[in-house]
Each structure stands twice: as C-alpha cells, then as structure tokens.
Amino acid sequence: MQKIVTSSNGNSRFHILDASRFFAAISVVLFHFLFLSWSGNHTNSISFNVIGEFFKYGYLGVQFFFLISGFVIFMSIQRGGVIDFLASRAARLYPAYWFAVLLTSFFIFFIEKNTRGLQAFDIFANLTMLQKFFGIKNIDGVYWTLAIELIFYFWMACLLAFKSITKFELAAFVFLTISFLSKVISFPSIVNLVFLTEYSPYFISGALFYLVTQSGPTTTRVSLIIASFLLAQHQAIFLQLPKIQSQHASPFSETSVALIVTSFFLFFSVIKLNGLPRPSSKIYAFMGALTYPLYLIHQEIGYIIINMLSGKLDKYALVLFTLIICLVISALIYLFIEKRYSKAFRKYVTHACTLFYKKVHLSKSSNTA
Length: 369
Fold this sequence. Notes:
The chain has one domain. The protein has 369 residues and is mainly α. 73% of the residues lie in helices and 0% in strands.
C-alpha cells in the first residue's frame, strides 16, 4: 500500500464532508420527528402522514455516517501512533456525549417527570458508552450507533498497535468475507457484533475510498469497494429494511433503498480533496461541528419538547421550533464543551495511556529479566 498523504489543500478537514455529515444528521432528525415518532415507536401522537412519507428513508443517514467515518479515520491514523489515535477518538466522543447523557437525563427526570422509570444506575452505565456490551438500555435510542463506532475504532487501533495499518486491504478482505459468510452461516450474535457483519461494508468502503483519493485506485481497492457495495445493498434491502418495515404500516420501497445506498457510493467515488470553495469553508466546518452533538441530543429531548408543546403550536411550526432548539443546544455544546475541554481531555488520555504503556512495558521487561 502506498504511503498515506495529507490533503492537497493542507487542511485536515474535507469541507464537503462537513456539509454532507450535516445533511445526514438532519435526515436522521427529520426521520425521527416526522416519521418514527408517530408511525413507529408512537412517542408522539402528532401524525405527519404526507410529509412523513418523504422523510421515512432518513434512517439511512446512519449508514452514510458510517461511510464518512471510514473515510476520515485515516486522517486520525496518519497523525500518530495508537495512543494518539485513542486519545483523539476519546476526545472526539466523550465530552459532548457526557453532557448529552446528563442533559437528556435532566429532561427525562424533570420535564417528562420520569415516566419511563429511569434509574441513576442507567445514567452511570450510559456515561461509559459501553452499555450495549452489558445489555443495559440506552437512555437515548441513537446511542446504539456509538457501540458500532467503538468496535470499528478498536479494530483500527489493533492495526496501529501491531503496525499493520498498511495491511488494511487484507483486513478489509477478512471482514468482508466474515460478513458474506454470516449470510449462510448462523453466527452467534456476539460474533456478528464484534466483526460488524451488518455494517462493515460501509466502514471498509469509506476507508478504501479515502485511500483511492489519496494514492489512486488499484485492482484490489476497486474490487473490495465493489464487494462492499454489493454487501451493503444486500444488508440494506434484506436485513435492515425488514427490521424497519416491521415497525411501520407504511410500505417501504426496496428500489428507493437501493438507489439511496447507491448514491452514497457514487458520492464517494467522485469526491474531491479540496472540497467546497474557500470563502464559505468556515460555515461548512461549523455545520460539521454541530453534527455530533445534534445527533446525540435530538431524539429524546426533541420528543419531549414536541409532546410538551403539542396543541400549542401548529405541528409544522412545532417541528421547526424543536429543530431550532436542538441546533442551538448543539452549538452551545460545541462552543462551550467540545472547544473548551476536548484538547485538555485529549492530553489527559494521552498521558494516562502513556503511563499505562510504560508500566506494562516495564512489567514485561522485569518478568523477562
């Protein structure tokens, strides 16, 4: 594999990805507000029969997130070793997440009056971001994707730790093979989770698209991307769509799902390094910065706001108002939590991991002696 190089514009951010990430987040938000809340989980009683049909495919924004995550992961990897990678990921995920968990818990306890019976232990468990692995319910339904991201980061950290990141294509082949085999072999659920058999084609193809963008296509990369595309289509139509359809009376179109997933791959096949024009790049960077906190806080808090103000505003004005509130909260989280504490948290994690590594290394050395 050729050496991974930095972006040709000297900027580690791809502004077109920032805009796309924001678009994906908004599609998920509107799927929850305009379709899932009344057609699926019946969290809200306000129905959006007509406009909801337009946004019912917004759940696929999550798959687009996974593609983007795979694409940008090498930008984190190329900046340093495994400790730096883990510290950067922890700093990216945890500060905003901790605040989101506490804020969502506040809304559940004091505004919704804790009708769902939330316990202090649930909050503590969710603060670890590991609740999925212990069978503990997510405080907010959107947290399920974080477990998937953590597993992907774990495998990338393993490649870094064993200095095998240049063998990513081999690792991609192994994961895709396991995912294909899961179609004909009934693996235990823990195997499917650990090897991301349902979502690996998105992460893998995203990473491969990045490598193609940086150092050009190869027969291996193109072949793996095609295999990822075929598997992603199979998963989206025959695995994920039936799960969604079982929750809703409104019919979903397999053709629409196939076309949307295809558009994700087409987008990455033509993406350019320099992104969008410079004059408005800060706007797109800010949009990208809002995406993670918006994703974290919109669902349960949004449902609570909509229920609380139901009947007091026109339903479309209510959704717009709720979206604006969520965007404002997201901006505040970014400005006063992420920008203020992420760097310090990253330094702390780096220091802690370095001390742990030295301790383990010294222990091994003394045992060998």
